[in-house]
Amino acid sequence: MREFLGDYVYFVAPFIAWFLCQLLKVVFYLFAERQLNIARLFDIGGMPSSHSALVVALATVLGLREGIASPLFGVALIFALVVMYDATNLRRATGEHAHTLNRVIPDLLRGKLVQNFDFRVMREVLGHTPMEVAVGSVIGFLLAYGMVLGLP
Is the pLDDT of residue 146 over 60? Predict the structure, then answer.
């Protein structure tokens, strides 16, 4: 398989890691909520982090193929760290703000404290917990490692 993928592993491994995590979101939702929700396949946030899987898979492929001293690996590693930091901090905080606003604004509207306000429910699951990022990162690493070097 390694010979078949060749240089395409730089694209294929991250994409498969991302897609696998998106599929796992559907499965986890099925077990947690006892209903199939295919829309989770296209959703952001939740367990596991597909963004983390994608960037870690890319960094892993570059590290294994180009070496960890290569400039490309350095760029990919920094990119991965920024994406994972953003997922656990900025995007997660945005989701928490949306959660609060989704609770407060309807109460304000019912109390007529706010008039002529166009309220639309905001997405609350935007970011990730550190565990969701860690699981996505492990999936990305293992998948890329397996595709580049083969599983033992």
Answer: yes
